[in-house]
Amino acid sequence: MRVLALANQKGGVGKTTTAINLGTALAAIGENVLIVDLDPQGNASTGLGIDRRNRRLSTYDVLIGEEPLAAVLQTTAVPRLTVAPSTLDLLGVELEIAGRKDRAFCLKSALQTLEVEQRNRSDAECFTYVLIDCPPSLNLLTMNAMAASHSVLVPLQCEFFALEGLSQLLSTVDQVKKSLNPRLTVHGIVLTMFDSRNSLAAQVVADVRGFMGEKVYETVIPRNVRISEAPSHGKPVLLYDLKCAGSQAYLKLASEVIQRERVYRAAELGPGEPR
Ligand code: ADP
Ligand code: MG
């Protein structure tokens, strides 16, 4: 089970869209995917067709330790894609867990329990990827996500201020690595909402690649109206319109993520170990 946090303290950069559609694309190519909605807004849950009325249990109950993660999971219209939905209750979770010594590890321990439970299952029933959709803030929820993850995937919108805030995010990842989670790495940076008609966009892509080099995925997600329409139908764009440029880009990103994962995993195991 590989755990990736989708994080960027800016709102509207494509975290939720990427969680939903990268998750769907990974599931489409055979991975067993769990999306953990850690944003009180619950847009990932809504975008995956989980009605608010059907969210009796949510990631809130998991974080405060009232329910195991397994109890809140809901299936989606996408085969092999499961979601742990969120509700607005999450807004209060910081206050509730702030006084606990293990406050940054609530999600991590829930995921560990889930992983242990899965040991008795067949491979087809075990999650291979967990994508955590973070809120637009470097708060305790995001700390929980980073503490529980192998790596962070950063969606970055192709706009003039794209690089602003990235340094802060990267230094937060460094701090988390030092204090909460020594294994944490940056998986990659995905440029989103690229508009080829906007001459500035190409410059932003070049700047970000110049600054972050290989960490930037080759795949760039285009600005695509089908991507923005899909959530109102409670569907990932791949179910809404598989042929559109947005769906094709997320499929490409998924194969790049898997490719990179192989390289990272090999590096973790070290030379001479079985891969
Ligand atoms: P975040 O989770 O970072 O706040 P979202 O994923 O919710 O960002 O995206 C913000 C808005 O932009 C949403 O309305 C979403 O539908 C839209 N959007 C995201 N990616 C694209 C894209 N590639 N093309 C068009 N619209 C997009
Ligand atoms: Mg979001």
Label this structure with key terms:
275 residues, alpha/beta, Rossmann fold, 8-stranded mixed beta sheet, 8 strands, 43% helix, 16% strand, binds adenosine-5'-diphosphate, binds magnesium ion
Small molecules in complex = adenosine-5'-diphosphate, magnesium ion
What's the order of the H and E elements?
EHEHHHEEHHEHEHEHEHHH
- The CATH topology is what? Rossmann fold
Query: What is the CATH-assigned architecture?
Result: 3-Layer(aba) Sandwich
Strand order of the largest sheet: 3-4-2-5-1-6-7-8
Count, helices:
12
> How many structural domains in the coordinates?
1
Q: What's the count of strands?
A: 8
* Dominant shape: globular
Helix coverage percent: 40-55%
Q: Which class do the helix and strand fractions yield?
A: alpha/beta
Major pleated sheet = 8 strands, mixed
Q: Can you walk through the features of this model?
A:
- By secondary structure, the protein is of the alpha/beta class.
- The chain has a single domain (about 1-270), classed as P-loop containing nucleotide triphosphate hydrolases (Rossmann fold).
- It has 12 helices and 8 strands.
- It has helices at about 15-30, 45, 60-65, 70, 95, 105-120, 140-150, 165-180, 200-210, 225-230, 235-240, 245-270, and strands at about 1-5, 35, 75, 80-85, 130-135, 150-155, 185-195, 215-220.
- An 8-stranded mixed beta sheet has the order 3-4-2-5-1-6-7-8, with helices on both faces.
- The longest helix has 25 residues, at about 245-270.
- It is globular.
- The chain binds adenosine-5'-diphosphate and magnesium ion.
